[in-house]
Design goal:
With 438 residues, this protein is of the alpha/beta class. It contains 13 helices and 19 strands. Strands 2-1-3-4-5-6 form a 6-stranded parallel β-sheet, with helices on both faces. A 5-stranded mixed barrel has the order 15-16-17-19-18. The longest helix has 24 residues. It starts with a strand and ends with a strand. The structure holds S-adenosyl-L-homocysteine (SAH), iron/sulfur cluster and FE3-S4 cluster.
């Protein structure tokens, strides 16, 4: 029996890709182990979104260098696609480098290594069969990821993703619906549709005259009707293709969760332009208005980049005022990080690390006050949670509401994967605490 260990960095798309890789290897007779020391094959599924993420991969590879005689090392994912064969120079004990579009070829690549090839690469981005992954071995028995669109065509000036994941390729309606139905039959009740920009989903068989975003609204409506599926989430949405019909679809059907992650990146139209985000502050805020006028209350979350080249003090203030205006329930804020091949490298007025840190802190502190206020509104409400896990240290269950709020509560018995009603008794900036309602 051949053994393998896999470690995953990065976003949910990477997490789901690793589920596909694990399933593929298991189906070929490999056995998964929990410690890299016990494995003959060690795989790192890597992320390149910020420089720190990339450095972490090489540091991790370095740690296992001493085992290079006894093990095969493979680098998968976004750093693999970005660096290609250069990885062999930086980490000579690596013998396999493969990007996300090549995973279905992994078994063949491993055979090549077993039969004497010293190094193999899979870096083509034009594979058509990336979506059909019958082997996927999911980590969670209750909620499942489904990739609906791969790649990105947006070309934001700071971002590596268009280079690491290639152009946008969408799946067919039939293929997504079939996977959702199979997951329901297998006992899953929550589905999360995945893509760098899910709402840019455009089925290959759809009418090309339909406006962008309509296919995604239709997909939401149809996935929301799959019997047995109680919750549908989706991540990430891009503001440009976020049409009103998507908001209407969510409002019509409570199976579609009351939460939208719509990254704004900056509150300044000038910075958005330099970022090539393809929307203005006002256009973004119009989308927020639609979501604030729904019958069901939606929660909103976002990503923010501070310290983009040329960002002025006024631009930063514009971001803070946007946070106040939208009142997000959570944000992920990052310091701008220079990435290879990206147009933003050529911009002037790069900002020092120290200054970026100051701006990051300002954004985080501003948002913290908003979250304390937002979460306080939940106290006294009874919410339905899907129970996701148990914290042994605190003896509390942890569940998620449709709005993606975390609620902790004490209760006897085995509740993982169950839906329960919980009355919120306390609120903090990041989570809520409550009591089980019998
Ligand atoms: N496709 C999604 C998110 C992609 S990556 C979108 O466009 O919204 C997740 C987040 O990483 C981005 O939203 C952005 O905030 C951040 N990010 C991407 N490139 C970055 C860079 N070079 N430096 C800092 N943060 C970055
Ligand atoms: Fe990157 Fe922009 Fe594409 Fe998001 S939309 S993945 S930030 S290029
Ligand atoms: Fe990272 Fe690649 Fe995802 S760069 S964030 S793993 S798409």
């Amino acid at each position: 029996m051949k053994t393998f260990y896999i470690e995953t960095f990065g976003c949910q798309m990477n997490a789901h890709d690793s589920e596909k890789v694990v399933g593929t290897l298991l189906s070929r007779g490999y056995q998964q182990v929990e410690e890299p020391d016990d494995a003959e094959l060690v795989l790192y599924n890597t992320c390149s979104i910020r420089d720190k993420a990339e450095q972490k991969v090489f540091a991790r590879l370095q740690e296992f260098k001493k085992h290079s005689k006894t093990k095969t090392f493979g680098v998968l994912g976004c750093v693999a696609q970005q660096e290609g064969e250069k990885i062999f120079d930086r980490a000579p004990h690596v013998s396999l480098v493969a990007g996300s579009a090549s995973y279905s070829k992994l078994p063949e690549m491993l055979v090549q290594l077993e039969t004497g090839d010293k190094r193999v690469t899979g870096l083509s981005l034009d594979t058509e069969d990336t979506f059909e992954t019958p082997m996927t071995r999911r980590d969670n028995p209750y909620k499942a990821y489904i990739t609906i669109i791969e790649g990105c065509d947006k070309n934001c000036s700071y971002c590596v993703v268009p280079y690491t994941r290639g152009p946008e390729r969408s799946r067919t309606f039939a293929s997504v619906l079939e996977e959702a139905a199979k997951l329901s039959a297998a006992g899953y009740t929550e589905i999360q549709l995945l893509g760098q920009n899910v709402n840019s989903f455009r089925a290959p068989d759809s009418d090309p005259s339909r406006p962008l975003g309509s296919d995604f609204a239709e997909l939401l409506r149809r996935v929301g009707q799959v019997p047995g599926i109680r919750r549908v989430r989706f991540m990430t949405s891009h503001p440009r293709d976020f049409v009103r019909d998507i908001v209407d679809a969510i409002d019509e059907n409570p199976v579609l969760c009351n939460h939208v992650h719509l990254p704004v990146q900056s509150g300044s139209t000038a910075v958005l332009k330099a970022m090539q985000r393809q929307y203005t502050r006002d256009e973004y805020l119009r989308r927020i208005d639609w979501m604030k006028s729904t019958r069901r209350e939606l929660t909103l979350t976002s990503d923010i980049i501070v310290g983009f080249p040329g960002e002025t003090e006024q631009d930063l203030q514009d971001t803070l005022s946007l946070l106040s205006e939208v009142e997000y329930d959570a944000i992920f804020a990052f310091k701008y990080s220079k990435r290879p091949n990206t147009p933003a490298l050529a911009l002037e007025d790069h900002i020092t690390e120290e200054e970026k840190s100051r701006r990051l802190l300002m954004v985080q502190e501003h948002q913290r006050a908003i979250q304390i206020r937002r979460n306080a509104r939940h106290v006294g409400r009874t919410e339905e949670v899907m129970v996701e896990g148990f914290n042994k240290a605190t003896n509390h269950w942890l569940g998620k509401t449709t709005q993606l709020k975390t609620i902790t509560f004490a209760a006897p018995g085995e509740l993982a994967g169950e839906y329960r009603r919980v009355m919120v008794t306390r609120a903090g900036p990041a989570a809520l605490a409550g009591e089980l309602v019998q």
